[in-house]
Amino acid sequence: MESSSMVFGEKDWLACCGSVKFAEEMVAAGPFSNYQEALDAAKDIWFNKVDVNGWLEAFAAHPQIGDSPSQSHKSPTSAQWSKGEQSTAITTATESTLQELYEWNARYRQKFGFVFLIFASGRSTPEILAEIKRRYHNRPIVEFEIAAEEQMKITELRLSKLFSANATAGSTTKTPH
Amino acid sequence: MESSSMVFGEKDWLACCGSVKFAEEMVAAGPFSNYQEALDAAKDIWFNKVDVNGWLEAFAAHPQIGDSPSQSHKSPTSAQWSKGEQSTAITTATESTLQELYEWNARYRQKFGFVFLIFASGRSTPEILAEIKRRYHNRPIVEFEIAAEEQMKITELRLSKLFSANATAGSTTKTPH
Question: Does A148 sit within 8 Å of B52, measured CB to CB?
């Protein structure tokens, strides 16, 4: 029983990173005996095996920063986590900074073709605004790689949540056996 | 009349590079007084303005190397050029090397999610086979950038054809004025 407590399913991995290929490869690479093993596998899969379409798919699973997660999230777990990750941004936002962020999100998406992605935990709205303005000047391919690195930071935090939640309450989507 | 002979339309640029954004930006940046001006604009647009979705769109406009262009080409001009670019490959191919190329194309597409792209002019089928096998080991993002550079080489050759064809016979898709 003890050793099977770290068996996660595709839905668990999808809540960490919204690429189907990523989730499938994590299932194939698992089960993992601890968080570090899972993280090592996740990094290898994300940077070496998921193709550029998979990166775009994972980016598309995120809400626009400053928006309510419920509109774009397919995974309820991911929606809840996203809300937590943006809590500092939300408490430091004013109506005018939120409006500015909204406008820059639109400009960003217009230039790059995907949502602005940032590891938001602990970051205030003014900090996030400064980042989007700075990154907006990047070449599309450069920004694409930066977004993939931000996605990996988000995935890393979510994996740790998955493992700590599992240590106390078991996986939410584990099939009985 | 003389100065208008270098006015090309969206279809001309699309035959050089199958990204709609690329073609639109070339129209907006033109008209160009010579080939070099057009090439400089094309490089700037392709590497700095076309987003990753536009790169994928341009890649998708190419036939699989070794295949007949007529199956995937939307542009008749592009289909004809593609055939010319692959003429060395075609004359140096045997049934077995073509079969091997076909299999590697499938493996490549399976890993990277887009067609194997190579500046094929003057390259034999054995050379192309060696390249696809070598590049297959790359990380997806690395290969994505290499493919974009190969696309630019193809675009460069096609731009030169467009300008030399225009110098003798005028643009094929130019609207009368």
Answer: no
